[in-house]
Amino acid sequence: MAITLTPAAADRVRHFLAERGHGVGLRLGVRKTGCSGFAYVVNYADVVEPGDRVFDTQGVRVLVDARSLELIDGTVVDFVRHGLNEAFRFRNPNVRGECGCGESFSV
Questions:
Q1: pLDDT in tens, 33-47
Q2: How many whole angstroms separate alpha carbon 56 and alpha carbon 45?
Q3: Rounded-to-10 torsion of CA 38, 42, 48, 53
Q4: Is the Cα torsion angle 99, 65, 87, 79 positive or negative in sign?
Q5: Which of 30, 28, 57 is closest to 44 using CA atoms?
Q6: Could you tell me the fold of the domain covering 4-106?
Q7: For the chain, what are the domain ranges?
């Protein structure tokens, strides 16, 4: 089981954590929503919660709860800039379908 960050994503997380001044890493999860069933949730992690799986990738800690890990195991998180837009992008090998807008996915 693993979640990994590309160098670009790791740099972005380190930048935001430094700007914020505290935090132990990036919390990645999913929630039920959207037309396809699930959406990614990305937040700062201030503490490691009981039941969290912690992955060290590119020098950044990524924390994932057990329920979310079942749906996103193997995911590679990238950070991309396209014109004026910038966002995290997820390459999740478990995805079977995505909505047209790219906001939600199904497994």
A1: 866 688 999 999 999
A2: 13
A3: 50
A4: negative
A5: 28
A6: Hypothetical Protein Aq_1857; Chain: A; (2.60.300)
A7: 4-106
